[in-house]
Amino acid sequence: DVSTRWNSTYKLLLSTFEYKELLCGFFGQVVQSSSLYLFSNQWNICCEILKVFSDATDQLSGVYYPTCHLVVTHLCNVACIFCEHLNSNEPPLIECIISMKTKWEKYFLNIPEIFLCAIVLDPRLKLDGLGELLTLYFDSLNPITDTCHSSSIILSSVRHSLTEIYTEYNAKYGSQVATQTQHTTSSIITSRLTKAQNLIRDRTKRPRGSSSSNLELENYLTTTFDFSTTDDEDTFDILRWWAQKKQVYPILSLMAKEILAYPVSTVAVEQAFSM
Questions:
Q1: Cα 117-120-125 angle, rounded to 5 deg
Q2: Is it the case that residue 206 has pLDDT exceeding 50?
Q3: Which SUPFAM superfamilies does the annotation name (predicted)?
Q4: 1: which of 8, 106, 113, 235 is 20 to 30 A away, CA to CA?
């Protein structure tokens, strides 16, 4: 085994789990120092901790579904498992967890904003859900980091970034989307209008430029969507949801599709977790 390959350690322990009692008994007789081998209960705790990393690796390594909006949830799972077992009565494991957590914070204490924006574009969570996840994440890390992170400041920054991105998309695609929508909904009756009526109609429905207000974004953020009759969380298709909302949010749906397609990492997630 390699000390920095956490997923490899998990697979090693899992593959020998059925021989756990036998191995613990053997090493308990041969090895004098208890710090060099795992007791039965420690074996279980190690598997429970390392499983969180393995699950994150499996899901975030997916290529046939978006993963960008899943990152923060997995970060919270890791932070929670650290916090839970720091209060255990196993000194060797606590020392190990502190070491793992120190390495973790080096890379994941400051979450890239693209992942935060992706959470907001998940209609089940949006800004309120992101705020709850951030509070959970930093509260779980706080016992050993003593770092105070203001969720409200981060949320304000994320909202500002989304507004700027939306403004750019609206400036680039707004006229095109509005023209397509106008043509689709009125192609039948247009032929029946006089030239004067067409002129008035075109002027009153002329697409607005990038200076227009972010009505789509604000409408999305303030609208409560009902997911009580939808499938469970594991089968929710976020890209299909945005495709179905294309007529309501033409600019935002395009923006969401491209942000959600952002890759979690340019290297394998297994390598990203090998610190």
A1: 150
A2: no
A3: Ribonuclease H-like (SSF53098)
A4: 106
Radius of gyration (C-alpha) of the chain in whole angstroms: 25
CA 260 – CA 204 distance, rounded (Å): 34
Q: Coil, helix or strand for 2?
A: coil
Burial of 42 (0-12, 13-18, 19+ CB in 10 A): middle
Q: Whole-angstrom Cα distance, residue 169 to residue 180?
A: 16
- Tallying the residues shown for the chain, one arrives at 275
CA 221, CA 126: separation in Å to the nearest integer? 7
- Integer Cα distance of 132 and 135 in angstroms: 5
| Each residue's pLDDT tens digit, 153-179 | 899 999 999 999 999 999 998 877 766
The reported pTM is 0.76
Residue with tokens 């080096």: 106
- Residue 232 Ramachandran class (φ > 0 left, ψ -120 to 50 alpha, else beta): beta
In angstroms, the CA 214 to CA 170 distance is 9
Encode burial over 261-275: b for 16+ CB neighbours within 10 A, e otherwise. Answer: ebebeeeebbebbbe
Q: What is the pLDDT of residues 114-136, one digit of tens each?
A: 999 999 999 999 999 999 999 89
CA distance 77 to 58: 14
